[in-house]
Amino acid sequence: MGFKCGIVGLPNVGKSTLFNALTQTAAAQAANYPFCTIEPNVGEVAVPDPRLDDLVRIASSKEKIPTRLTFVDIAGLVRGASKGEGLGNQFLANIREVDAIAHVVRCFTDGDVTHVEGKVDPAADIETIETELMLADLDSLERRAVALEKKAKGADKEAKESLDLVNRALPLLREGKPARLVERKPDEEKLFQSLGLMTAKPVLYVCNVDESDADKGNAYSDAVFARAKAEGAIAVVVSAKIESEIAVMPEADQAEFLEAVGLTEPGLNRVIRAGYDLLGLVTYFTVGPKEARAWTITKGTRAPGAAGVIHSDFEKGFIRAETIAFKDYTTLGGESGARDAGKLRLEGKDYVVQDGDVLHFRFAN
Predict the structure, then answer these.
(1) What residues of the chain score a pLDDT lower than 50?
(2) Residue 267: what pLDDT?
(3) Contact 77, 109 (CB under 8 A)
(4) CA–CA separation, 234 vs 107, rounded Å?
């Protein structure tokens, strides 16, 4: 099960530097000119979760396998991208393929790094990107509405339902509002997502600040946080420059470096966790002497679906799930302690897996 978070933003805001740090590679070229990234670079990163270390210690597992999140570095958008300016059409197609958007916003001043709009203005930068995405969505829906209207005149029930969603989204887009504001019922969500609207995707604002502001941010990032709160979005502060230094540093030296710059952990950990939360994901664990492993599922997933993440046969032949809450597992010293205390539960097909559950699936071959 793959979950992709696309890194977008204007040119020269630090997207590729951030991506390189995230994946600890130089796969994405970071350079001081627009369009240095032509093809989207894809990298998988481990989701930091100290709970996994506790499980490894308690179970004496030989291997630790974290869950992972995919980031896609998408080349910089510019004003007019929705009309094909720059490399707009290609970039917009890449954004449609991701599950969520990590919007890197320039919140630093550096005369040596050219700003494509000529000034540092986070609010204006966000508006530029959002406008281009809305214009592209508007164009897509207006063209799609014509075909749906023809199908809806017949007996095509799905076309009628899709047209209804399109007609709810169009007025918002024409007013300069993102499609994520469309009011919809839970049972309409899957069909709504099938429309492939970029402004319907959840957004994480990544405020790229100067090194001196990496711990608390600055006035620029404060403005972005205020906007995120008003939108119901998420924002984090990070210094891509610091993160790129940490990424190539021996692990033994990282703690001392972080302390020197006033940080308790790499800012990328916050970015990864925020992206994970943004996608509505939770983690469950499987634990044994061979390995302790984290698995990703969406919130609300029932036990058979969670089993299917490991293997489709587990879902097809699901019988029940031996379940221990993480707190019970750790405080009672593992599976045997939890079992003796009556904290190991047998859950059936309707059980909704909770974040941190330690599970062992029983299934029929």
Answers:
(1) 1, 25-38, 81-82, 85-88
(2) 85
(3) no
(4) 16
To which residue do tokens 């799905």 refer? 158
Taking alpha carbons only, the member of 287, 353, 337, 344 closest to residue 53 is 287
* Helix, strand, coil share (%) of the chain residues, nearest 5: 45, 20, 35
Residue linked to tokens 């230094």: 245
Map 321-361 to HEC letters: EEEECHHHHHHCCCHHHHHHCCCCEEECCCCECCCCCEEEE
Sign of CA dihedral 212, 218, 224, 226: positive
From the list 357, 194, 201, 191, the residue with the least C-alpha distance to 286 is 357
3-state secondary structure of 317: coil
Picking from 113, 84, 93, 120, the residue whose alpha carbon sits closest to that of residue 8 is 93
C-alpha to C-alpha distance for 53 and 109, rounded to whole angstroms: 39
Q: What is the pLDDT of residues 324-352, one digit of tens each?
A: 999 999 999 999 999 999 999 999 999 99
Residues 94, 7: Cα–Cα separation, whole Å? 10
Whether the predicted model's global pTM rises above the 0.90 cut = no
> Which residues lie across from 69 on neighbouring strands?
45
Strand order in the sheet with 291-298: 63-65, 291-298, 281-287, 358-363, 318-324, 345-347
Torsion of CA 354, 360, 361, 362, to 10 degrees: -140
Q: What is the pLDDT of residue 10?
A: 85
What is the reported pLDDT for 2? 59
